[in-house]
Design goal:
- The protein is α/β, with parallel strands linked by helices and about 325 residues long.
- It has a five-stranded mixed β-sheet with strand order 4-1-3-2-5. Strands 6-11-10-7-9 form a five-stranded parallel β-sheet.
- The longest helix has 14 residues.
Length: about 325
């Protein structure tokens, strides 16, 4: 099957994107449902999104769709009908709005994957009818205040460190796959409590709560729409926001500021800081936190070693 793709250089597309003054909205959505031919649906999505001048990263697998996109503000109205025309299972899909509308994507990528969220688990364990109960946003704070409730963060280490709910328990791991390997034993002592889970938009919690229920946890919940829906709805309704710091996002923006709290520290000098950059050494490219002073001192390298040994230094 012919796989439709961009014909323009990504570097050129990025240059146009950074100079553009178009008013674009960043959105995300996911839906678990069976897809018989992911490659065929992938091409349909690519064609339809191209018509609406949508940029972003969309994963398609037999288990469903996971999408992070940006779209011209005056085209948002057409998105729901577009999704319905692509596949009727997307008729009622929940769409999350980004917490800031800075520039995010400059190219359209639609990729077929084995899973829309890599979990490393048995293919047949997941049942979208047996997942954690949704906690509506107006009930989240009330539930988190209950003595018999624990709040569990299902994001990666580098996401959690710059922002999280007050008193949230974090499942250690640099990937979702790593977290799921240990989550059952890690939470065993809380098995009789109400476990409220959250992630960025909800997609990881669908599987994490299903995995706990598969392993005989009973009182399992998830925040509907994740951090994005919680913060947007709380701001709209003037609810107290119990999330502190920044929300990590996997696009050009990298973070979204939610509160003034700075929870993390500079890797080099240890002052409070939450600025993520990538080490400029070609063979390192490590994602790390570095304050403005250390960015100058180390020239945006993560360490003196990388600074000294980088053979690709631009003079």
């Amino acid at each position: 099957m012919l796989i439709l793709h961009n014909i323009s250089c990504k570097k050129d597309l990025k240059s146009v994107f950074l100079k553009s003054h178009e008013h674009r909205i960043t959105l995300s959505f996911y839906k678990y449902f069976y897809i018989n031919n992911p490659y065929e649906l992938r091409n349909i999505i690519y064609n339809e999104f191209l018509k609406l001048n949508i940029f972003g990263r969309i994963y398609v697998a037999k288990e469903g769709i996971n999408a992070q996109i940006n779209i011209l503000k005056n085209k948002v109205y057409f998105l729901t009908s577009c999704l319905y025309n692509i596949n009727k299972n997307l008729q009622d899909v929940h769409i999350n709005y980004a917490l800031n509308q800075k520039k995010s994507f400059w190219v359209l990528q639609v990729k077929v994957r084995n899973k829309i969220v890599a979990d490393g688990l048995l293919d047949n364990f997941f049942n979208d009818k047996n997942i954690g109960k949704y906690v509506e946003i107006h009930n989240v704070n009330k539930m988190l205040n209950q003595a018999n409730t624990i709040c569990v963060d299902m994001r990666n280490d580098y996401e959690y460190i710059i922002g999280h709910f007050q008193n949230a328990i974090h499942i250690p791991g640099s990937t979702f796959r790593d977290q799921l390997k240990i989550i059952v034993n890690f939470l065993k002592k809380y098995q009789n409590k109400n476990i409220v889970m959250y992630c960025t938009g909800g997609i990881r919690c669908e599987k994490a709560t299903a995995w706990l229920k598969y392993n005989n946890f009973q009182n399992v919940y998830q925040i509907k729409g994740g951090i994005l829906n919680y913060v947007n709805e709380s701001r709209k309704n003037n609810f107290l926001i119990k999330f502190q710091g920044k929300n990590f996002v996997f696009d050009y923006r990298m973070t979204e500021k939610i509160s003034e709290h700075i929870l993390s520290r500079c890797k080099n000098c240890n002052i409070h800081c939450d600025i993520y950059i990538n080490c400029r050494k070609h063979t390192c490219h490590r994602l790390f936190i570095q304050c403005r002073v250390c960015q100058i001192k180390y020239n945006r390298y993560c360490s003196k070693f990388c600074k000294i040994h980088d053979i690709f230094i631009v003079k």
